[in-house]
Specification:
Blueprint: E1 2-9, E2 14-21, E3 25-29, H1 36-44, E4 50-55, E5 58-59, E6 70-74, H2 85-92, H3 96-105, H4 121-133, E7 139-143, H5 151-167, E8 171-175, H6 179-185, E9 188-193, E10 196-201, E11 209-213, E12 217-222, E13 225-230
Parallel strand pairs: 3-8, 3-9, 6-7, 7-8
Antiparallel strand pairs: 1-2, 1-4, 4-5, 9-10, 11-12, 12-13
């Protein structure tokens, strides 16, 4: 169970978010600059904040970054360019069996000796996901991890996320602007605006009806309730 209340004073507004959930994948949505990435960084310990972060009733707020049981994947992959795939994974965990298991799960077989400059964008992101998951973290933070990828690569990585949901005791927090991605992957959606939570709902994937879409927002109907999602 993830139980979070985070407060942080920012230049344009105060980030003031609280939510509690045992859902497997929680998506954070909202327009650019609404505080989504700052929220992830506070959970990871990269940003100082007030409030509390509780995971399974254990307080994380005062834990150092290295003591927080998390994996993190960003849009820019953040894998070491001077290390091949196997070495990138070994840097996170030296256990040969765990490396082989995560290589098999993430379908990285045959890529072990390749360096990042010889990998496609999708392959790089799979390596980043594998490295983030090799220690079976309690929380996985994903900040726009698929936004630079084409449709086919995204679909493949969505399958990898589903594998993670099925094979690990890990709660995932995803920041995304892609409403289709959010509905495909999420068990809970939290929408924030100017640092505040304005919507929280469980997506009903088969019953969601698109009412209106433009450059800045989509309007959907889920079980008779209308939601406006800012992109």
């Amino acid at each position: 169970m993830l139980d979070i209340k985070i407060y942080k004073k920012l230049d344009r507004f105060d980030l003031d978010i609280n939510f509690k959930s045992d859902k497997k994948l929680i998506s954070i949505v909202g327009k650019s600059g609404s505080g989504k990435t700052t929220l992830l960084r506070a959970i990871a310990g990269f940003e100082n904040s007030e409030g509390y972060i509780k995971v399974d009733n254990k307080e994380w707020q005062n834990l150092k970054i290295q003591n927080r049981d998390i994996g993190v994947v960003f849009q820019n992959y953040a894998i070491f360019p001077n290390m091949n795939v196997y070495e990138n994974l070994k840097f996170a965990n030296n256990d040969k069996t765990k490396i082989e298991n995560i290589i098999n799960l993430m379908e990285l077989n045959g890529l072990e000796t390749r360096y990042p400059h010889n990998l496609s964008g999708g392959e790089k992101q799979r390596v980043a996901l594998a490295r983030a998951m090799i220690n079976n973290p309690r929380i996985l933070l994903l900040d726009e991890p698929f936004s630079a990828l084409n449709y086919e690569l995204k679909q493949k990585l969505y399958e990898e996320i589903e594998l993670i949901k099925q094979n690990f005791n890990t709660q995932i927090i995803l920041v995304s602007h892609d409403i289709g991605e959010v509905y495909k992957l999420s068990d809970l959606v939290i929408e924030i605006e100017n640092g505040k939570k304005i919507n929280e709902f469980i997506p009903t994937k088969n019953l969601a009806k698109l009412i209106e879409k433009n450059e800045n927002e989509v309007v959907i109907e889920v079980e008779g309730k209308v939601y406006r999602i800012i992109l």
